[in-house]
Amino acid sequence: MTPLRTLVLAALIGVLSIPSSPAGAQPILNVGGEPLEVQADKLEVDVTEGVALLTGNVSLAKGGLKVNCPRIDLKFDQTPHVNWARGSGGVLADVKGVHAEAPEVELDLKKQLLDLRGGVRLTRGQGWLQADKATIDIATAKVTLTQVKGSIPVSPKGP
């Protein structure tokens, strides 16, 4: 590993591990005004290509969104702002009270959409749904499902 690459990697790791930014400082991985907080056993960064790979006990959090899985691939621009992420290896996600489990997830941070694929299970309270695919709008927590079955509790009293 070249000294420059080692220095860039060390700086990126240092910035990613800081829980909050000092007044006036800009976090290196900023998304839509909120920092993207990440944690992993290992981080590999290719600054030239604008990609990063996090592996081992990976967690990602942004506002009301939390994602945990074994692997997350990130793409970022030159600012650097993260604009896309893909989690794989068995994903657990929570968005504003909706708990999701799926084999993989894709996160479009520009559109604020979380796409879960490959057999999804969503739970909230005592209700649960299974679907082939689920899309969650992060800003509104609106959920769209395809090929759905499940159980939704109803109130014993009418409206």
TrEMBL record:
Residues 37-140 form the Organic solvent tolerance-like N-terminal domain. Keywords: Signal. Residues 1-25 form the signal peptide. It comes from Pendulispora albinea. This is Organic solvent tolerance-like N-terminal domain-containing protein. It comes from the Bacteria.
